[in-house]
Amino acid sequence: MDSPATKPAGRSAADGSPGGRRLLVRALALAGSLAGGLAVGGAGYMVSGSPYWFLAVPAALAVVWLFVGTPQDCSCSETPHEPGPRA
Fold this sequence. Notes:
This protein is mostly helical.
């Protein structure tokens, strides 16, 4: 049995925490969108010879971001502090 001293402080994706699963899903979505964009770009390049097909990579990232991007994860939970000297 793990004692508190031997357990890592942070939670990982492997421990089944909701935050860890969400991070794993987002990482897999990123990898999948990169692979999909590269596949479309490579196939288009092979057929037509135009390198513009590789614009599918940022397009795929943008589409996936619409589904997995959560702006709430980027916001600060603390209230902003007034600038100036501290009391």
